[in-house]
Amino acid sequence: MALRKDFLWGGATAANQCEGGYLEGNKGLSTVDVIPAGRDRVSVMKGKMKMLECNDQYFYPSHEAIDFYHRYKEDISLFAEMGFKCYRLSIAWTRIFPNGDDAVPNEEGLKFYENVFDECLKYGIEPLVTITHFDVPLHLVKTIGSWRSRKMIDYYERLCETIFTRYKDKVKYWLTFNEINMLLHLPFGSSGLVFEKGENEEAVKYQAAHYQLVASAKATEIARKINPEFKIGCMLAGASTYPYTCAPEDVWKAMERDREHYFFVDVQSRGEYPNYAKKMFERMNIKLKMEDGDEELLKKNTVDFVSFSYYGSRLTSADPEVNTQTAANLFPTLRNPYLKTSEWGWQIDPLGLRITLNALYDRYQKPLFIVENGLGAVDTPDENGHIEDDYRIEYLREHIVAFKAAVEEDGVDLLGYTTWGCIDLVSSSSGQMSKRYGFIYVDKDDDGNGTMKRSKKKSFYWYKKVISSNGEDLE
């Protein structure tokens, strides 16, 4: 079983990391617009440090980002030159509903995305659209506490109805929430949650999760009414967790850690809360507020496919002495002595991608889609401005070999592969530009200085060859 003939090769970005134009076209403020670069970034994203206004003492990289808002035609033409079959992008909620609770959508925002989709379709590029990618209207955080409130479901529903209706002939593939499980790790960054002293944070997070899961099912229901051809997916920050040793306690700990993340997709893909989650809520004394009809809605409106990001595997131990965290990614994970790491301490594990694909396919038996995978690295142009990013080519090559093996040798059904940050953009975790992922270099530094000039890296030409050969030519 080889890769599909219509395999969706491409790249991925998020509105808040590439668009800029943060107040243009009547756009409202979003949570990401008040998340600064620098030392306090992670505290704000975790909801530990309350920042609901911009402050002159900080730099906010989302405000300009890489200015895709004005340069989308140039960027999409470069994607087309590489041969993209698919471009994953997200819609900024506050471009469509500036406050989130507006009665009427903002036509300028709707028109912007219409133009972007038309530009993609001009080149035969299929848009894969994330409805919300770490993006909540700031007004809704201030007025109703964001996803603490059930009212968010109504506002999300209105967003979905608006964009599904407007783009029903332009977009086929949709994702309801980006990395929905990140709500547990970056509650403000992903979902606009800020905590008060002394409250039960886990209860707040899981209640918000319930509302998002209901909202996701609602979106799926609405989508099928508006266009039965739509394909609706969920999206997980994916990676298998390895036990530190073969001690049964470590194996159990690894299983528990995986379930923490699978929980969301178990509901979105299987349509009900798993027993292990119900028992966990009992132990934690969490009583979810559900309304009549919630469970039936979840059951009837499961997703068509499961998408996920993959950057590396995780490692855990049951021994509290051993289980100290590394700096890798925003997930707690131990250092795996068998793996190399990136410049940012992220562990590189191509075989882990094959393991994760098999674990997800065994569990859900639905088509899968790798919608983020890539290497963040410092790229230094030579005297001619050229970037020899062989380290990126090697990383991507090894991961493509791994997912091809999952398809060809293990029988996993894989729809496509969109590399993360196909053009350099603002890093979500660190807010830096110097942590580059793209095939296209953008001349901008961590302080926001630079010409924004786009130029092709060595990997640009390599990926073009990979796509044109449907993954056969990886040299």
Automatic annotation (TrEMBL):
Keywords assigned: Glycosidase, Hydrolase
Database matches in InterPro entries: GH, GH_1_N_CS, Glyco_hydro_1, Glyco_hydro_1_AS
Coiled coil start-end: none
Record-annotated active site: E372 (nucleophile)
GO molecular function, one term: beta-glucosidase activity
TM ranges: none
One Pfam family it belongs to: Glyco_hydro_1
Gene Ontology CC: cytosol
Keyword Hydrolase part of the UniProt annotation: yes
GO annotation, biological process: carbohydrate catabolic process
PANTHER family assigned to the protein according to its UniProt record, in alphabetical order: 6-PHOSPHO-BETA-GLUCOSIDASE, GLYCOSYL HYDROLASE
NCBIfam families: PRK09589.1, PRK09593.1, PRK09852.1
Similarity section: Belongs to the glycosyl hydrolase 1 family.
Protein name: Amygdalase
Organism: Paenibacillus lentus
Species classification: Bacteria, Bacillati, Bacillota, Bacilli, Bacillales
